[in-house]
Amino acid sequence: MDRSWLSLDMLWALGSLCQLNKIPFDPALVTQQHPPPCSESTFIQAAATLGFKIGRCDTTRRKLTELTMPFVALLREPATAASASLALVIKRDGARLLYYRAQNNIAETIAISEFDQRFEPMVLLLAHEAQARSPDDDLWSRDPKPFGFRGFL
After folding, report:
1. Mean pLDDT over all residues of the chain?
2. In sequence order, what are the beta bridge partners of 55?
């Protein structure tokens, strides 16, 4: 079942992902294009519009240490909860995950072994599509051309 998400949580997650990938983000435009009510489907559509590739991943079938970062996870909550609570998992080391709860700028850590107790098993993996590169991006990687008067003729 596609549980509802708070609109502000979805905008926070999209804005955070855009900031991590240095992509311009306009919450008003996203809200206009993807109005409430929000859900996982709405998030997937909005993220795809922003250039992200998204896939669902079942963490009961795949190890957390194999997943690409960042990913969006849902906190386990009682079935009576009105909406899902999001978290953005951004980093891992050998035994811990670093994540942010939606609309919160305080990082939290959790042992990888405790992930399934606190989070739903289905997560959303995200990667930004390759952006068009500007000519200046390759400025230092090109073979240097010898300096001379040829450039002035």
Report:
1. 86
2. 125
Would you state the structure tokens that stand for residue 58, as one six-digit string? 């079942």
Strand partners of residue 21: none
* pLDDT (tens digit per residue) in 109-144: 999 999 999 999 999 999 998 543 444 555 445 555
Question: Could you tell me what percentage of the chain is helix, strand and coil, using 3-state DSSP and rounding each to the nearest 5?
Answer: 30, 30, 40
Q: Are strands 108-111 and 38-39 parallel, antiparallel or unpaired?
A: unpaired
- Nearest-angstrom CA–CA distance, 13 and 43: 9
For residue 10, report the phi and psi dihedrals to the nearest 5 degrees.
Answer: -65, -45
Q: Are 5 and 40 in contact (CB under 8 A)?
A: yes
The DSSP output letter for 149 is: G
The H-or-E segment that residue 82 falls in is none
